[in-house]
Amino acid sequence: QDVTQYGLYITEDDGEVDWDFPCLDPREVIGKFEFASLCLAEMCPADRARHDPAAIAKVEEDMSDTTDSEPGQHEMDLMELHTIAMSAPLYKSY
C-alpha cells in the first residue's frame, strides 16, 4: 500500500493507541513532539483528508467542473468536505 495512507499516532504508556488525538503532522520533525512511543497505523478518513493536499485540490477541482445541469452539487461537495473535517477527533467533545 501507499505509505501516505499511514500516520503516527500518540500511544498510552501501555502501548495502546490514543484515538482521541489525530495523527501527527507528517511534515513535522518527530523529535519535536518528545513522546516516548508512537504507533504507525493506517489513517482514518478525516486524518487522510487533513494531511492530503491533493485530496483537497481534487475536491476543489471537481467543484469547479460542476455544470448548471447539476443544481446544488457545489453545495453537496462543500457539505461532504465539511463532514469529513468535522468527523476529525480534534472537533469531537467528550
UniProtKB/TrEMBL annotation:
GO terms for cellular component: cytoplasm; plasma membrane; TORC2 complex. One of its GO terms (molecular function) is phosphatidylinositol-4,5-bisphosphate binding. Pfam families: CRIM (PF16978). GO terms for biological process: TORC2 signaling. Residues 2-49 form the CRIM domain. Belongs to the SIN1 family. This is CRIM domain-containing protein.
